[in-house]
Amino acid sequence: MENNKVDVGAVIDSAGFFWMPCGIALMMIIIMLADGFDLFIMGYIADPLVADFGITRGDLGPVNSAGLIGMAIGSVLLGWLGDRVGRKRAYVSCLSLLFLGSLICYVSSSLNILIAGRLVMGFGLGGITPLATTLISEWTNKNIRSVVVAAVIVAIPLGGALGGLISGPVLANGGWRGMFLVGAIVPLVMFVLFSYLLPESPKYLAKHPELHKRLANTLNRLLGESRFSGAEEFVVVEEGKRSSHWFSTLWNTDFRTRTTFIWTAFAVNSFVLYVFTNYLPTLLTNSGLDAGTSRMGLTVFSGGAALGSVGGAIFIHWFGSKYVGTILAIVGGMATAALAFLLMTDSVVNLQLLTFCLIAGASINGMQAFMYAVSAHSYPTEIRASAVGMAQTFSRIGAVASPWAATIYFDMDPTPPVSVFLFSIAGVIVLTAISFFLIPTHIPGNSREIVELEEADALRNGVGVTPPE
């Protein structure tokens, strides 16, 4: 075979989704379910933890903040690690951090030890999502990429919903420590299993000539035929202006506008998301609802993510992300306001309550999935993992602010009605809609014109796929 130049991205785009990319997506989904379980866990154990430690709800603010701070650090450090030692090694390292952090929380005898455990868990939680987004983007063909990314991201809130389903029996038999024991065992099992099964990113392998033989074998598996020998010159075709460093590239004239609005939308939506995930059961309990109904509200909120993320991604595939995401954000603000109005009434109808929680969950969780998909779409492969990781890190500003906002609210004397707090959150959601709408690099809808433009770009690059012998 001749030593031809091969565009790895073109090979990926020419391959079907079944079987190898589908298998990778399924592994990502399983890992993200565990990620969501650990992410949402504080919302389910808050009340028994407060009772056991003899503390107030406001004292949980530092615990929640520790996890979010760890996530902010983990997003950058593990993204950096993924660029240097490979996406796979960084990804399975996240699982080991989830195991270690959950184990520390399980044996904790004080609030400070619990804070330390959540910080370690945060390191792992921070790295998992941007690395998963990068792996899926680099393994899935462009025609279904945004849908698959959304399907993987939606597993996070679904993992939270799964936590709600098992929280009753686990809390009844093992207390709040039992939830952390589950959170330790599952990542440990996956670490052992996926360290063997999960393949490395093809675009990472392409950037390391000594790994081209391994890349050739990987691409042959993807295509189901022996097309490459490893003697080819594998390349990753990149476009756009580059600066001296990946971070400065984010802020050069080609990228600064998209970076500004992506970071803003990410931060504002993360603030709203973490208010709901960490405090919805407590807010509903403070409104006079029983603990079971309050936990079910969070479970339904988390379960709504499938409706918003996957359903919305299908619409994005047809109509593009700009209007689909903006409308979804507005609907979420309306559902949150409706929930506030409902809690102002003398008698709350559970069906109405859960319906508004479902719609709010579909919107807020769906927007979070869209932010990862739009971020991955907005940056070239060369800086994609770092760019998505940095966007997620900046989003933690909003996430870290959420427990402090809740703490301020709970510490007010007298504490205002919960409806007042929810009306404020509905106002914040308006900022999500505006900043998301202003992102200049949205995912376009599926049209022949777009396909033709992409094909023309590929021809101008002069780099193709080596034909079989």
Plain-language structure description:
The protein is mainly alpha-helical and about 475 residues long. Helices cover about 80% and strands about 0% of the residues. The protein has 17 helices and two strands. The protein has helices spanning about 10-15, 20-55, 60-85, 85-105, 110-140, 145-155, 155-195, 200-205, 210-225, 245-250, 255-285, 290-320, 320-345, 350-380, 380-410, 420-435, 450-460, and strands at about 5, 235. Strands 1-2 form a two-stranded parallel ribbon. The longest helix is centred in the middle third of the chain and has 43 residues, at about 155-195. The radius of gyration is 22 Å and the shape is globular. The chain starts with a strand and ends in an 8-residue tail after the last helix.
Q: Secondary-structure map with pairings?
A:
Blueprint: E1 5-7, H1 8-14, H2 20-53, H3 61-85, H4 87-107, H5 111-139, H6 145-153, H7 155-197, H8 202-206, H9 212-223, E2 233-235, H10 246-250, H11 256-286, H12 291-319, H13 321-343, H14 350-378, H15 381-411, H16 418-437, H17 448-461
Parallel strand pairs: 1-2
Distance linking N and C termini: 6 Å
Round the mean pLDDT to the nearest integer and report it: 87
Strands across the major sheet, in which order?
Answer: 1-2
The level of helicity is over 70%
State the main characteristics.
mainly alpha, 469 residues, 17 helices, globular, two-stranded parallel sheet, 78% helix, 2 strands, Growth Hormone, Chain: A
Q: How would you summarize what this structure contains?
A:
The chain has 469 residues and is an all-alpha fold. It has 17 helices and 2 strands.
